[in-house]
């Protein structure tokens, strides 16, 4: 039986809710924010990806994938393809099916800890040409094989992270202690140049003002940035809050080779891994775990997954 008690469900085409129950005094929860795994590439650091998924599984947490799970560039008519980049086990006439089967084999032990998988530009390119969604196929196969509930998502979207309070009586509604609104995009651009994509922060802050966390991938860079904002309540009381921006790294190390497209373009090494969000429960000095007078405070602490 899976030990992850979190529940993920679709609120709309662009938004899913991810709920977990705050059921003990020392409650904590780990979420892996991960992008650009390129899991089928020979340059993918699969051992690092598996390390991070093992950490999530051990902590009974969850992983969110934000695009380019696949490299998927070795199809017959793909001009980006290079047979030298193809793993031997994927050299087959049913290439796309082999990609799905290979990814399912790797991810199956962690299926109950993967909440959603979004589409990136590598998957959307395949879908436009072949009318076949690699992401939907992987989610469907994993869900059928394991009984998991991994939701396929689009290029951009929302995740509502909701720690839920466990009440003392069954009749009481299990309302969220807090809703952390995460907006993601797989990303755009060619690598960020000297800014490494940080110029997108203020632009995104304008058009996704409701987000508490903003995530993007695609350019294989890694950083975090905090924006402090002044807000005002409906009662006219000003207050401050924080909007976090995360640029997610990759698991594909193309710099490891001594020649090829990456070196011909003069590109530098890129950081590997992702980011963790560690959720923890805190109480005020006058509140205990069994107190029903106040809600506990949920803190979010980001850490690099390396």
Structural commentary:
By secondary structure, the chain is an alpha/beta fold. The chain has a single domain (about 5-305), classed as Purple Acid Phosphatase, chain A, domain 2. About 20% of the residues lie in helices and about 30% in strands. The chain has helices at about 45-60, 95-105, 120-130, 135-145, 200-205, 260-265; strands spanning about 5-10, 15-20, 30-35, 60-65, 115-120, 150-155, 155-165, 180-185, 215, 225-230, 240-245, 275-280, 295-305. The strands form 2 sheets. The chain has a 7-stranded mixed β-sheet with strand order 1-2-7-8-9-11-10, with helices on one face. Strands 6-5-4-3-12-13 form a 6-stranded mixed β-sheet, with helices on one face. The longest helix is centred in the first third of the chain and has 13 residues, at about 45-60. It is globular.
């Amino acid at each position: 039986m899976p030990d992850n008690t979190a529940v993920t469900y679709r609120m709309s085409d662009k938004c899913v809710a991810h709920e977990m129950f705050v059921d003990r005094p020392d409650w904590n929860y780990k979420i892996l924010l991960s992008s650009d795994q390129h899991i089928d590439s020979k340059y993918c650091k699969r051992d690092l990806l598996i390390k991070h998924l093992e950490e999530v599984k051990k902590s009974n947490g969850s992983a969110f994938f934000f695009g380019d799970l696949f490299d998927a560039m070795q199809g017959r008519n793909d001009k980006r393809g290079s047979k030298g980049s193809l793993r031997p086990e994927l050299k087959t006439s049913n290439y796309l099916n082999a990609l799905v089967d290979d990814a399912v084999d790797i991810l199956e032990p962690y299926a109950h800890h993967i909440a959603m998988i979004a589409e990136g530009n590598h998957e959307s390119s395949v879908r436009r040409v072949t009318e076949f969604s690699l992401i939907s196929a992987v989610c469907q196969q994993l869900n059928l094989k394991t009984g998991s509930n991994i939701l396929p998502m689009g290029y951009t979207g929302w995740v509502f992270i909701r720690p839920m309070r466990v009440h003392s009586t069954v009749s009481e509604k299990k309302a969220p202690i807090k809703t952390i609104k995460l907006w993601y995009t797989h990303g755009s651009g060619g690598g960020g140049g000297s800014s490494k994509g940080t110029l997108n922060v203020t632009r995104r802050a304008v058009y996704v003002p409701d987000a508490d966390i903003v995530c993007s991938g695609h350019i294989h860079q890694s950083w975090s940035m905090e924006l402090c904002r002044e807000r005002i309540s409906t009662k006219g009381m000003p207050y401050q809050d924080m909007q976090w921006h995360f640029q997610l790294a990759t698991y594909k190390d193309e710099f490891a080779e001594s020649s090829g497209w990456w070196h011909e373009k003069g590109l530098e090494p890129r950081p590997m891994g992702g980011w963790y969000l560690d959720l923890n429960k805190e109480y005020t000095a006058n509140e205990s775990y069994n107190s029903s007078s106040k809600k506990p405070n949920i803190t979010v602490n980001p850490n690099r997954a390396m």
